[in-house]
């Protein structure tokens, strides 16, 4: 075994905690090195975490446009609850209503009406009304899928803010097309496919498609402005350099022991560190003074009792 400080040979039977050559405490000397190494690694890894947090902040709440994008994106998903169109089936002692909206679809699925649509499509009484609502439902499903994809991309937008803003813009345009298609399909079904004044069924047009078109157009405009302005996270000084250095340390290009402690330090960080150090020294001095006063008072008390 060799001494970690001077490199002198230490026999295996020498169980003393200190080196016989330089006198250093081997255990504490190794611990100091490990603590310094851990402090360097923590500094580099914290920089990477702070950069991720800065990206998340810039994407979601970093600006007025980012906040408005979040509000309108959530609003576009909530707009799926508004009926796009609805059809009512009537027979003696029977009446059912199917609404092409998120709430209406859930209610129709729980009541079993949604699963009965293939039979309604084959009937002579309800075939045209069922065909019309199925066309609107097809556009609604495509719009819902586009909104799901858009929401997932939005949640992951901190990975690459500019690229995801461009992707959100494209997906919003596609969602606008599906929403407009649903609204137009409802109008066509009302005026062409389903006969007016039918006693057995009635078809009503909702404004869910129009609401989704407006909301997605606003999202397109917001993303276009964000792309023009650029989504720039605000990083702490030296954090990008710390991140690059961490990659080199993990790949083995740089030895962690060769780096200084702290690895990088700005003037603000130096002042904060010195302030904390001075405060700790003052607290330690106050504690020592208090201990001395207590010891003096105790000694005086013992002398008086004697």
Q: What labels would you give this structure?
A:
three-stranded antiparallel beta sheet; 9 helices; 66% helix; 3 strands; mainly alpha; 306 residues
Question: How would you describe this protein?
Answer:
It is a single chain. The protein is mainly α and 306 residues long. The chain contains nine helices and three strands. The chain is elongated. The protein starts with 25 loop residues before the first helix and ends with a helix.
Helical content stands at 55-70%
Shape: elongated
Report the sheet-strand fraction. Answer: 5-15%
User: Which class do the helix and strand fractions yield?
Assistant: mainly alpha
The largest sheet is:
3 strands, antiparallel
Q: Give me the Rg, rounded.
A: 36 Å
Mean pLDDT: 83
What topology, given as strand order, has the largest sheet? 2-1-3
End-to-end separation in angstroms reads: 57 Å
Our count of helices gives: 9
Low-pLDDT segments, ≥5 res: none
Instruction: Count the E strands.
Output: 3
- Helix and strand sequence: HHEEHHHHEHHH
Quick gist of this model?
The protein is mainly α and 306 residues long. The protein is built from nine helices and three strands, in the order ααββααααβααα.
Task: List strands and helices in order, with pairings.
Layout: H1 26-60, H2 64-78, E1 85-91, E2 94-99, H3 102-111, H4 117-122, H5 127-155, H6 161-193, E3 201-205, H7 208-229, H8 239-251, H9 267-305
Antiparallel strand pairs: 1-2, 1-3
